[in-house]
Amino acid sequence: MSIRKLSTGVFALSTLIQHAVTAPSSPVVSFRFPEVVEAGGMHNIRVDYHSSHDGEFSIVYGDCGIESTEDAHHILGTTHVGNHDLAKRHLNWHEQRPTRFVWLAPEDMSSDGCLHAFSGDVLLGRSAPVTVGRRNNKRHLAASEIMDAMGPWFDGVTYLKEKEPESVFVAQTKSKSVGILGGGMSGLMTAHILDSVGFHDWQIIEASSRIGGRVHTSYLNATKPDQYQYQEMGPMRFPVSLTMDNETIEINDHKMVFQLADELNKQNQHHPAYEVRFIPWIQSAPNDPSSTTKRKSDGTVPGVAEVKENPSLAVNTTASYSNATAVAEATEEFEDWIGMDLEKTRLYATNVFKAHKQAVAEGFLDFSESGYLRYKMGQDNNITDQVDSVADNDPAWPYEDIYFEATEWRTIDQGLSRLPAAFGPQVLNRTRFQTAVQAMTWNETSEKMSVHFRPGNPFDMETETIDFDYTIVAVPFSKVRLWRLPDYSSLLSRAISRLNYSPACKVALHYKTRFREHLPRPIIGGCGSGGGISGIGSVCYPSYQLNSSGPGVILASYLSGDMALSTGAMTEEDHVAYVQRAMIEIHGPIAAEQYTGAYDRKCWLNDEYQAGAWASPTALQQDLYLPAYFQTEKHTVFVGEHTSYTHAWIFSALESAVRGTTQLLLDMGLVDEAKQVTEFWMARWISM
C-alpha cells in the first residue's frame, strides 16, 4: 500500500537513520531510531549487535555522559538476551537477541540526550544525540476529541502505557503465528492488513465452504454474475452523501469500503475475475409500492407517487390513536431530545466516532425511544407504545438515520459477493474451510492458544487442535457463546454471552422478464413497502441493467426484528408462497404469469454459521461492553461488526479489523506497523 509520510505527529511514519556510536570505543551494540523522536509519542528503535552479549540488557535515555542507569532521565526497559535462562522468551529472535524495542517517550524529555545500553553497570553502547520534537498538537487534539473509554486504540501511547512496562519493551518477531477465526469481512480485512505490513504467518479458519460471511449474493436460476439475475441476501448498498439546504455532506464511514476495493483492484492488477466496480444504487423511486392498505381500482397496490397524487389512497395512521395530540407531542419531545439539526447531521456523517462519543454523553445509548418517553419524560405507557413499541430496547443514537437520509448511494456491479471474492488470490491458499471451531484453550506456560474443532462424527468426544501464538476471533458472538472458552474477564465474557442480535429474513423471486419496468407506471429500482401486507417489509428492485431484456429478480421481502422471527419459523415453501402471493397482490396477475419458480430465501437467525443477521446491542450494552473489545486477553483479539461502534454495515466489520489488527501489532511491540495501518486506513477521521 502507498503510505503518506509525515515528519511529525503521533501517527507519523518516521524514517530510521543510522547513528554513530560515540562511546565506548568498542561498542557491543549500536542504535537506529527515528530522525526526530516525538516527546509523548511511541516509537520503535533498532539495535545492532557487533559482538555477542549474554545476560541483562537495559536501554535508557539521558545525558550523553552518564555512566549508570541510575543517572538516566528514564528507562525504556530491561530484559535478558543471548545465552541466559531468562532469555528464552526471545526464542524467535536470532540467538535470542532481540533487535527491535519499544520506546514510549515521556512528555518532559528534551533534545541532545543519548540512548544507552547497559548490562548492570557495564555500558554496551551509546547513540549519537537524539533530536526531540513536540507532539503535533493539532493532530493529537483531533484524535483526542474521540479518545475515551469508547475508543482508546486511536492513541497507541495510552494503550501501551496501560500495560506492564516489561511486557511492551521488546518487540515480537513477525514469525509469530496468528489464527484468524472466521472468513467474513472482518477476518478477510485482518488478513489483508497483516500481509500489508509484512506479517504472513496467519491462517483463516472458516466453518463454511465460502468466504464473505454475511455478504451473500444469490445468483438465481444457476446463473453467473454477468447474467444479471441476482439479489443480495445480505448487505446490499453503501450510502455516499446527503444533500440538505443546498449543501452536500459526504458520509465518511463507507469510504473505507471504496478504499478497500481500490486496494484490492490494484493488488489483483484489475483482473476481470476479481475487479470490484461500483454502480449507482437507487434507494427509492416514485413508483415503488407504498405502505398504504388502500388499493387501486384493479386491486393492486398504488405506488408512492400515486398516493401523493391521490390522497384518497392514503391511510390516516392517526385515526386509531387514543389521543393523537398526545402522540404528536410525545414524538416532538423525542425529536427535540435528539436535536438532529444540520450541524449534528454534518458531525454524524463526517465523524461517526466523535458522534458516538457525543451520543454517549447525551445519553442516547442509555435509552430507546420508548424508554426515553416512558422513564425520562413520564409518558403514559399507551401513548408511548403508539409512538414506539414499549418492547423497543434499541439505543436511540441515530447514526442510521443519517445513512438513510442519503441522497446518493452505490452498490457493487454483479453483486456484493465480488468484494470478498477479490480477497481470493490472497487468502484462499491460507484458509481452512469446513472447520467449525468448538473450543479454545489457553496454555499459560507456552502462551499459545489451542483452537479445537471436530471434523468427523459430531458425537466424538475427542477434538483436533491447531495452536497459534495469537488469535483473532472474527466470528459473531451469537456463535462464539457456544464455544468452550478460556477464563476471560467478566466484562468480556458477559459481552460474548449476552450481546443482542437481530433476526432478518429475505426472499428473492425470479421472473421470466423484468416486467415491473414495463407496467403502466414503471418501477425503476428502489425499495418500496409491501402495501400493508403483514410479513413483507421492504420490496426492492435491482438498480443494475435498467430497462434491459431477459429475466428479472425482485427482492420480494426484506424484514428484520420480531416479524422476522415469525416468518423465519415458516417452512421454506410456505414462506416463498406467501411472498409470491403478495407480489401478485402488489403488481397484478402478471407476477403470477412471469414467476419461474426459482427463488432464494435466507433467514439469518436460522443460518448455522451466523445465528443472527447483525449485532443489535440493547440500551446500555454498547457503552458497557465496548471497552472489553479494546483489551487483548490471553493473546486474543475480538473483531467483527459486533465489536464496532456501528453495526450491520460492511464498514463496521472493516473498521473493527483495522482496530483489532492495530491492537495486535501494538501488543507485539510493532509500533511502526501499527502507525502505518492507522495512518493509512483512519486518516480521514483523525487528520485536520
UniProtKB/TrEMBL annotation:
One GO BP annotation of this record: amino acid catabolic process
- Name the source organism: Aureobasidium melanogenum (Aureobasidium pullulans var. melanogenum)
Q: Which GO terms describe its molecular function?
A: L-amino-acid oxidase activity
Can the keyword Signal be found in this entry's annotation? yes
Amine oxidase domain segment(s): 185-660
Using the record, list the residue span of the signal peptide; answer none if the entry has no such feature: 1-22
Which stretches of sequence are listed as region Disordered?
285-304
Q: Tell me which UniProt keywords the record has, alphabetically.
A: Signal
Lineage per the UniProt record: Eukaryota, Fungi, Dikarya, Ascomycota, Pezizomycotina
Name of the molecule in the record: L-amino acid oxidase-like protein LaoA
